[in-house]
Amino acid sequence: MRDRFIGLFIALVLLVGGCSSTSTPAIDENNSSKSEPQSTDTYLIGPGDNLKVFVWQNPDLSTTVPVRPDGKISTPLIEDMVAVGKTPTELARDMESVLSKYVKRPSVNIIVSNFVGQFSEQIRVVGQAAKPQALPYRESITLLDVMIEVGGLTEFASGNKAKIVRRYGGKEENIPVRIHDLINRGKIDQNVILKPGDIIIIPESFF
Fold first, then answer.
1. Of 48, 55, 140, 202, which residue is least crowded by CB atoms under 10 Å?
2. What Å distances lie between residue 148 and 142, 163, 207, CA to CA?
């Protein structure tokens, strides 16, 4: 009787173990599918970007063009198409729509080079930087990152009197920064994280 009870207990354990082993992969599979990252195309084309336009099996229509200050581009068979404010994928679909009048089932791919982005997504450096310019915003970009890209300060710069002009919610904020101390004295507390649309103003030193 005891042996029979033990046998039933072992069979029950094996049965429960078998059920759990078959259900576990299904749960893991569902969890993995939910955690799988979704690809997104969120970069918006801006004036000054360079676009490599590739039209499949049509090399004569493939070209590299800059986005003009008016926000438009012109390529073979396409004149004055608005590019600013669109993702590369959206612009490619728009170009396919126009090219379909001349080419059977056109397939367009667009690669953005020399990223600049929209004005609202740029960081602009003006004044006494070695190379004043507008730079594309990157996530977590810092003041030091930007100063490296613009070549640092000129010999006439009053770096410790610089400021960051930041606009949000219809308001303007002036944030003083000591760039000279950051670059030459390693004052890391001045290495602030920048936001899209920030303007860094570096005045001239009068002495």
1. 140
2. 10, 17, 26
